[in-house]
Specification:
Helix 2 links the parallel strand 4 and strand 5. This protein has 5 helices and 8 strands, in the order E-E-E-H-E-H-E-H-H-E-E-H-E. It has an 8-stranded mixed beta sheet. Helix 1 packs parallel to helix 2 and helix 2 runs parallel beside helix 4. The radius of gyration is 15 Å and the shape is globular. The longest helix is centred in the middle third of the chain and has 13 residues. It is about 25% helix and about 25% strand. The chain is α/β, with parallel strands linked by helices.
Length: about 170
Amino acid sequence: MKVRVAGIVDDSIVDGDGIRLTLFVQGCPRHCAGCQNPEALDPSGGHSMTTAEIAKRLDANPLLAGITFSGGEPFLQPRPLLALAREAHRRGMDVWSYSGYTLEQLHARDDADIENLLREIDVLVDGDFQLEKRDLTLKFRGSSNQRVIDMNATRKAGRVVLLYTD
């Protein structure tokens, strides 16, 4: 299965807890002012990689805690990211994802592929980046409207449970 990729960081420490493989997917319709990755906006940009190629990179670093999906907008490519999330879980790793959409907006899309991916995500950082709410002191997010959601606890509680509330 193929995914459109803007870039990969093999050992990120800023995109979730622990050392992470961060996959920046290509394509985003949101165009937030102050976007951190404007080169990832064009859905025809970047390059194509197979999920198997990316999964091999998970094996290349024994220190990885997990994989993070960033962007662009990860939920534009839910099927290949679902396959990668499952590969990470098979290896005992966790899965983080960023999205410019809120969890509620993702659920409202009523898309089975998105729902399947959400079931595999351990932590979701949701909401669009808002330049006027930019705050560099926040953990794993850029603006105060964004949430770091513990998806496992959220599924169990039946309500949104935040991992960080700073």
